[in-house]
Amino acid sequence: MRIYSNSFRIFITLLMLFTCAAASADMMWKQEDTITADGKSDTLTQTIYISGPRFAMVSSDGLRIVLDMNAQTLSTIDSGSESFNTVSLAEIDALRDRMANETDAIIEDALKNIPPAERDEYRKLLEEKLKEMNSDDSAGQKKKHYSAVGDTKSLLGYKAWLYRLEGADGLKEEYWCSREIDTTELAALLDMTKSVKVMKNLSASFSSLDHGFPLESLIDDGSSVVSSKVIELSFDRIDPAVFSVPETYIKSVK
Question: How many angstroms separate the CA atoms of 83 and 77, rounded?
Answer without folding.
Answer: 6
